[in-house]
Amino acid sequence: MLATAAAIHFAGGVPIPVEAGPDHLMDPKSIESAITTRTKAIIPTQLNGRTADMDAIKAIAQKYGLEIYEDAAQALGSKFKGRCAGPFGKASCISFYPAKVVGCFGDGGAILTNDEETYERILSLRDHGRDKTGEVVMWGFNSRLDNIQAALLDYQLKDYQKVIDRRRGIAKIYRERLDKIEELVLPPGPDNDPDHYDVYQNYEIEAKKRDKLQSYLKERGVGTLIQWGGKAVHQFDKLGFKKSLPFTERLFERMLMLPMNMSLSDDDVHYVCDCIVEFYQRR
């Protein structure tokens, strides 16, 4: 996501993209070759409601003395080996953008940290640089979540486990119906990987003839999305990147997000599956 790299840029750093793995998350095998004497931190993005292999990433960070910051914007409630996304490094961010699993009507987010110094600094940065006494101690921003959005989020969080259960139920139907289609690569099913507990922020597949499949589904009233317009961050030439990531680029030629939201009925999900099965049977 562009925002992750932009945060590094505006903090005065240089973002160095690395390859994604088959799970569409940061590939730990690609990290070490990108590390130099100037490297300060590793920022894994916990994408689509799934948490990366944090054991491997933490081992690399410890080996080179690097900090970890998680972009957990899409991963609220996601777990790796029983531990929720967010507390694996020095700090992490959660997004409450309306399209997220828990979203407000405007925009919003949260930062998680167990580091006292980071906590105090964030409190000041979000409120014009003021400390707890109201004294201005640094340059800051106006990044406070307003009370209306906070109230909406508070209400939704009371039933959050029901939301997760429903999304996992939809993912289970997709897995059962589409698993035998050779032209598709599906996310792991809810019960297929004991190390991961996914919340399915998105249901992102890889598909042969992706563009034709998308058009076919659109003709039948099924909306789909290609995440970030079909480009990875390093593919935006005007941002100054001079890097080739062949596996990631290949993923972006195949990735497609199927409907995944709380308004879907089981019949809706089966209809989507019927259309996909029909598309590949005809070809």
- How much of the polypeptide forms β-strand, as a percent range? 5-15%
Radius of gyration: 20 Å
Based on DSSP secondary structure assignment, what is the total number of beta strands?
A: 10
Assigned CATH superfamily of the largest domain: Type I PLP-dependent aspartate aminotransferase-like (Major domain)
Could you name the CATH class of the largest domain?
Alpha Beta
- Shape descriptor reads globular
What are the secondary-structure elements, in order, as H or E?
A: HEHEEEEEHHHEEEHHEH
How confident overall, as mean pLDDT? 96
How much helical structure, as a percent, in the residues? 25-40%
CATH topology of the largest domain: Aspartate Aminotransferase, domain 2
Biggest sheet details = 4 strands, mixed
pLDDT under 50 segments (min length 5)? none
Q: Class by helix and strand content?
A: alpha+beta
Distance between the termini: 33 Å
CATH architecture of the largest domain: 3-Layer(aba) Sandwich
Number of domains: 2
Oligomer: single chain
